[in-house]
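go over my protein:
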Amino acid sequence: MTKGKLFVFSAPSGSGKTTIVRHLLEQPDLNLEFSISCATRDPRGEEVNGKDYYFISWEEFKQHIKNEDFIEWEEVYTNNFYGTLKKEVERIWALGKHVIFDIDVVGGLRIKHKFPEETLAVFVKPPSVDELKRRLKLRSTESEDKINMRVAKASVELATAPQFDKIIKNYDLDTAKEEAYQLVKEFIGK
C-alpha cells in the first residue's frame, strides 16, 4: 500500500477548523479523504455516525485500546474519549488518497510525531478568546457550562500552536481557507 500525505488541522473549538477542513475536502485536485474519528460521546446537532464520527460505547473504545487499534486516542473532555483507528488511515491510503484530520491538538501532535515526514500539522488560531466564545454561543449546540469548559481549555490549546508546522490566523474565513488550500497543495507537491 502506498502511503499518502497526512494533513492535521487542530484548534480550539470554534476556531473554524471544521469549516476549513470541509472547504479543503471540496477541492478535487487535492485528493483528500476525511479521517473519521471514534468518539464515546453522543452525536450533536446534525452529526451522523460513520460520517462525522464513529460513535461507539466506552466498552468498545476500551477494547480498541486493549487491541492497540488506535494511532492516537485520549480523553479530550471528562468521559469523552476520541481516537483515530489505524484501519481508518489504511482505508484512505488504499483509495490512493491523502488523509485529512479535524482533530484536537494533543491527537494532532501525536500523529505528527508518529508520521513526521508524511504529516503537515496546521494550527487554526482564532482572532481572540472572546471571539471564540461568541462563535461557540452562536452554534447553540451546548450548555453555558460546556462552552465555558471549552473556552478554559482553549488557552491551554493556544499555547501548543508553536509546536505545529504552520499556523493559520482565522481573522477572515475566506483568507484562512485560501491559505489552507495553498499549504496543502504545496505539501502534496513535496
